[in-house]
Amino acid sequence: MGAGSVAGAGTADEVEPVAPGERCRILDEDPDLGAGLGEADMVAATRALVAPVLTASGSTWVPPIYDPQTSFGLLVLEGFLGRRLRVGRAVATELLSTGDIMRPWEQPLLGSSEYSLDWRVFRPLRLAVLDGDVTTLIGRRPQLVVNFSSRLLRRARAAAYLMAISHQTRVEDRLMETLWFVAQSWGRVTPRGVRIPFRITHEVLSEILGAQRPSVTTAFRKLMAQGLVTREPDGTLVLREPGALADGVSADAPGPR
């Protein structure tokens, strides 16, 4: 896999404002956010939780600003993006996709170094705006408060996990663990393994792993030579468990579930 452009990204900034009348039922789009509600409450909450929709299809994204005191955040309904934080000469990228909730108007914790923050769109975005009206409705049902808050905490847990991975010595180990994290979060099971439905450049992966891009490219070659990673014609990746290779499972056998 080369370090070329990420599939789905545009060539110019294209940020579309919320279109009048373009709205979605949040729990129809993401039913897991209603987990734990009784049948009647689920029906009522599905009808009530209607949010404006925001889209973005350019290579970079400038998030809208909503009142941080009353707005819960932005829920990713579709798409794939990266939050890139640069502190001094160091760069780290966080990947976000379907189901993630973000509050892009929140500033990073400040240290002694200068920093910059930008957002890159790797696959066109469709976002639900959890504005003040939606936040008020969420607050009326404790189970929804727990569910929506859990989505915010999920990102913190993911960041801690990837940080632990980045401390492994071998770059290929870091890369394999990171790819499996992405696959288990957003992948699709295929007869050949788990397919990551996005193209991720070596540059972006190097920013996640805390490694130099040439080292990531070398690690990719090793994993592909071992049959642990294969590339589809469209540039996306398919991962296979080491055990499947050791047991002599054919390429047409079912992948992990």
Account of the protein in words:
This protein has 257 residues and is α+β, with helices and mostly antiparallel strands. The chain folds into two domains: 15-151, Jelly Rolls, CATH 2.60.120.10; 168-246, Arc Repressor Mutant, subunit A, CATH 1.10.10.10. The protein has eight helices and twelve strands. It has helices at residues 26-29, 39-48, 132-138, 142-166, 171-186, 202-209, 213-225, 242-246; strands at 15-16, 23-25, 50-56, 60-61, 73-87, 90-97, 101-102, 115-130, 188-190, 193-196, 229-231, 237-239. Helix 6 crosses helix 7 (213-225). Mean pLDDT is 84; it is low at 1-17 and 246-257.
The span between the termini is: 25 Å
Number of helices: 8
Q: The CATH topology of the largest domain is what?
A: Jelly Rolls
What is the alpha-carbon Rg in Å?
A: 20 Å
Instruction: Output the helix-strand order.
Output: EEHHEEEEEEHHHEEHHEEH
Taking pLDDT < 50 over at least 5 consecutive residues as the criterion, the unreliable ranges are: 1-17, 246-257
The first-level CATH class of the largest domain is given as: Mainly Beta
The CATH superfamily title of the largest domain: Jelly Rolls
Q: How many domains is the backbone divided into?
A: 2
Query: Which architecture of the largest domain per CATH?
Result: Sandwich
Number of strands: 12
Share of residues in strands = 25-35%
| Helix content bin | 25-40%
**What is the arithmetic mean of pLDDT?**
84
